[in-house]
């Protein structure tokens, strides 16, 4: 049980943010060099309820990046699990064969500078990797398998150079450097960020897995891709 103490007088929204951030920082202690804190990170809202976002912003990579950087203020932004987003409407690859649309984000995004190093949060091995081409796609992607926990972790929008030394089955130590955030020319045309996602069942996918789903398929994917912020019990005291 994680116990958090706060001053008696504090804004309610800050309490909620702090609790969420404490849980998240435990999980990602080895995902980035420095664990997230109230000092160095901020929740980034890219949901459909954010009325600031419109096609004139997310329809242009450079304008979208300026918007993101303005919101970050030099910090790392995070968030997005099961977030309903309109930004995918700019990309045809999120359309489905039916009348609905894939617009619910299944991972946790971490927005910061290109080149930021990424570390494996658990011991495992390389399951697969590939460059997923096309505007709005993952770009270079790495997927690890963690046998002890029987779960996979996906890292999307990394650098192309990070794929060069990889081999399927390559052992990966907890805390080992596995990649870097890719730039906009190689990461699918997005402002630099990491798409991090847990996956229980890969369903036969290799080097790729849906990171966005439609409302119709939400129940399945919410179960198959658990919330990273609630997965901290996997990590022992060495990662806290």
- CATH first level: which class? Mainly Beta
| Distance from first to last alpha carbon | 13 Å
For the sheet with most strands, the description reads:
8 strands, mixed
The arrangement of helices and strands along the chain is: HEHHEEEEEEEEEEEH
Full CATH superfamily name: Glucose Permease (Domain IIA)
Number of strands: 12
Tell me, briefly, the overall form.
globular
Computed structural class: alpha+beta
| Corresponding CATH architecture | Distorted Sandwich
Overall number of domains: 1
* Strand order in the sheet with the most strands: 1-2-4-11-8-7-6-9
Can you describe this structure?
This protein has one domain (44-226): Distorted Sandwich (Glucose Permease (Domain IIA)). Helix content is 16%, strand content 22%. It has helices spanning 12-27, 55-58, 61-72, 218-224; strands at 41-43, 76-79, 104-105, 108-111, 117-119, 124-132, 139-146, 151-156, 171-172, 177-180, 193-199, 212-213. It has an eight-stranded mixed sheet, covered by helices on one side. It is globular. The two termini are 13 Å apart. Mean pLDDT is 82; it is low at 1-19, 25-29 and 232-240.
